[in-house]
Amino acid sequence: MTRRVGITSTIPVEVVLAAGDVPVDLNNVFISDPDPSRFIRYAEEAGYPRNICGWVKGLFGLVMSTRCVDTVIALTQGDCSSTLALVETLMVNDVPVIPFEYPFARDRDVLHLQVEKLARALDTSMSAAQQWVEKLQPLRDKLSEIDRLTWREGVVSGGENDAFLTSASDFEGSVQRFERKVDDFLARARSRGPISAEARIGYIGVPPIWNDFYEFIELQGAHVVFNEMQRQFSMPFDSPDIVDRYIAYTYPYGVFPRLVDIEAAISERALDGLIHYTQSFCFRQIEDLIFRKKLLLPILTLEGDQPGPLDGRTKLRINAFIEMIRKKRTECSTSLPVQGQWLPSNTGKDL
Questions:
Q1: How far is CA 69 from the centre of its chain?
Q2: Residue 340: closest CA among 216, 202, 223
Q3: Minimal CA–CA distance to 116: which of 104, 105, 130?
Q4: I want to staple 250 with a disulfide (CB 3.0 to 4.6 A). Which of 11, 46, 233, 257 is the partner?
């Protein structure tokens, strides 16, 4: 019997596929619902406090109100600090839960044991999961091509980049169907002209809870050419070994591996500024202090709470940030036009 296996964050999805099960990224299902706020209301009516992350409440409400999955793989280390409480409230309501942990120290041996335990829990094997690493590589290469077309060719929007790379966590429930969707998109994207933009923005942090974020950015004359977490979710790594691949994945291992990845993107993608998104009531807000200390680029920090459109205050702050970058580029004597686009200076003060 094929099971629908919910995941609370990116895990070695090859193990789920090797078991013949259907992976379901609960985050993607929650945020793509026509009315995602209903799941938050459900959680609060069930007793979840109001000052808890909207994503956590959304996942609880989704699982409990729809029973859309047969079991849940919960990331109990390497993700949100509230996931343990989410797991406990699911278990007390008779939802089967399989825990999975990324070792904070990025220890390969420990991660190998975790992947083995996950394989046993799903009645499959490491060797079967390893075969899926090879099967998925052509699709992962196509996702990397979408990313390249975003920052190098400028023909893919930041929102399209976000949507496709984020979907790599579960391939929208069907690898074959999702690959056809990617192929169709690539064919269309390659026939486009480049997006006209006066600022190249990097987005760092978890995907935004707002549904019009990227569209608003483009209306201000900017182009998001780097989506940090979303790119990581797509596993753009060369290693053929499943454990090494998830060791290279930066998200679960703290802020410092992420800094290395972000700094490389700043240089390679010629970013003008960074937007750092954090969820309300999330411990990751504290990491903003480190980004401001270590990254020599203008940073706008945004905080989101409920799903829906951007609020007026956040729109004003984004508009002012992009206008500041636009002015800075105009004044910067070291910026030169290359291939029809500007390559900005990568120095600046944190904001």
A1: 21
A2: 223
A3: 130
A4: 257
Backbone region of residue 95 per phi and psi (left: phi > 0; alpha: psi in -120 to 50; beta: other values): beta
- Kindly list the structural domains of the chain, giving each domain's residue range(s) and its CATH number in brackets, ordered by start: 4-103 (3.40.50.11890), 128-343 (3.40.50.11900)
Provide the H-helix boundaries in the chain.
Answer: 13-18, 26-32, 37-45, 54-66, 83-91, 108-121, 126-151, 158-166, 175-189, 213-219, 228-233, 242-248, 255-268, 288-294, 312-331
Task: Find residue 308's DSSP bridge partners.
Answer: 210
Quick one: tokens of 302? 């945004």
Express each pLDDT in 184-228 by its tens digit: 999 999 999 999 999 999 999 999 999 999 999 999 999 999 999
d(CA 131, CA 224): 34
For 188, phi and psi rounded to 5 degrees?
-70, -45
Please, is 24 exposed, middle or buried when counting C-beta atoms within 10 Å of its C-beta (0-12, 13-18, 19+)? buried
Nearest to 123 by CA among 46, 19, 211: 19
With a CB cutoff of 8 Å and minimum separation 6, the contacts of 62 are 26, 29, 30, 33, 39, 68
The residue-averaged pLDDT of 277-301 equals 87
- Given a contact cutoff of 8 angstroms between Cβ atoms, the answer to whether 279 and 301 are in contact is no
Q: What is the mean pLDDT of residues 238-263?
A: 94
